[in-house]
Amino acid sequence: xxxxxxxxxxxxxxxxxxxxxxxxxxxxxxxxxxxxxxxxxxxxxxxxxxxxxxxxxxxxxxxxxxxxxxxxxxxxxxxxxxxxxxxxxxxxxxxxxxxxxxxxxxxxxxxxxxxxxxxxxxxxxxxxxxxxxxxxxxxxxxxxxxxxxxxxxxxxxxxxxxxxxxxxxxxxxxxxxxxxxxxxxxxxxxxxxxxxxxxxxxxxxxxxxxxxxxxxxxxxxxxxxx
Length: 226
What we know:
Number of strands: 0
Oligomer: single chain
InterPro entries: DUF305_CopM-like (IPR005183), Ferritin-like (IPR012347)
Pfam families: DUF305
Mean pLDDT: 81
Strand content: under 5%
Keywords: Membrane, Transmembrane, Transmembrane helix
Low-confidence stretches: 45-49, 131-143
Distance between the termini: 41 Å
CATH class: Mainly Alpha
């Protein structure tokens, strides 16, 4: 597979610091996307024909991370359409496009495995096969919503606050929510890396941990300057 990368124009002294950061962020995200695609391709080539359990970590991760990504995309699109901050808009666009693509990959996995997109178990139950911390805590709350069960998910009230905010307040709230959201995503991907049975899911989870940890650092740096 041949991948052509369009390299941004060299930075010059006349470009503003904000513009330079946006260009560097674009280069960073391009590398992250290509790395994720590479992990995905390796997983497709190395995964052997095997039965994936409906209640196992592979299927549970694919379902729950789709829901987790969907909220990240929702938050990113909300702020991208309203923010006047060039860096926030660039970050939001990259999060939305990258996570929509990854959700499509996980949707396709479930189809290939012959499994439904919705499982019979509550969200995050698959993580109880690890330390037991998540599954045990959530089994006592069978009526909990996905937002309450999944780490890093914003509450409906927080989402409404983000939609209603504007200017620098919206930028700061988006950065705060997305940092926490990514931290939850890293926790889920780390569990999948340890529990998944297929090389495809383990490789994808490893790439996700690396990419989202890097994005957390970038968001924290940006948040400090807002």
